[in-house]
Amino acid sequence: MGNDIERYSEEIFENIKHVNEYGQEFWYARDLQRVLTYYQWRYFLEVISKAMDACEASGNKADDHFAEVRKLVQIGSGAKREVEDYMLTRYACYLIVMNGDSRKEVIALGQTYFAVKTRQQELIEDYEQLSEDQKRLAIRNEIREHNKSLAEAAKNAGVVEPRDYAVFQNRGYQGLYGGLGAKEIHDRKGLKKSQQILDHMGSTELAANLFRATQTDEKLRRDQVVGKREAGDVHFRVGQKVRQTIKELGGTMPEDLPTPQKSIKQIEREEAKRLETTD
Q: What's the whole-number mean pLDDT along residues 179-199?
């Protein structure tokens, strides 16, 4: 299934995306049906129906996310006939893949893609209203998700052993932090051995690391990098590029940014207590 996994990577979902005249993105259900390897429309309609029920159950109007349309398609004789289709929002696509056949590997890829992208969109829309702690929590969660994808991309390049992955990650930090590796960053922040450096970064520093991770992930896959040393070099150069961009914009270098008093774990505990109180 290796070739199938590559084929149905993030790019395939982006390739079937459309944008209307108002700049709003959408997907056609029949395009998604093909990508998700449902070979008969009637079976895919069953998944759409479940997704629409889930949409209503979550308090959203299905019509806002699943717009029924009619399309003309060409048939073998050269004639055209009208078929049923749906214009889907990103949220609708997310619900469809969550209700799809979990045995299909492409469904798992779709779940990851639409879940991450939906969270990113929500973050963008609400970002200015978030407090600093909320921004830190949101970006830290994004990094957790993207680091999973980065680890997979690194593994595909040949970074297999845990020790090799630690070296690979360190190369990214060294590029972004002007030569400082994870241990040096840890020491500068005055952290205990058990504390993770990503849990002790402000939103600006976290955002720089998120950009480093996403761009390295994409470059490893796009350039089909092979070799653990080569993968590490890519991570280092991407880190350098992010650092150079910060410099050109007149920003503060990440190693010079202040370390927040609260850790991410503290914020998560406070958020959990707040939710318990409001329930």
A: 95
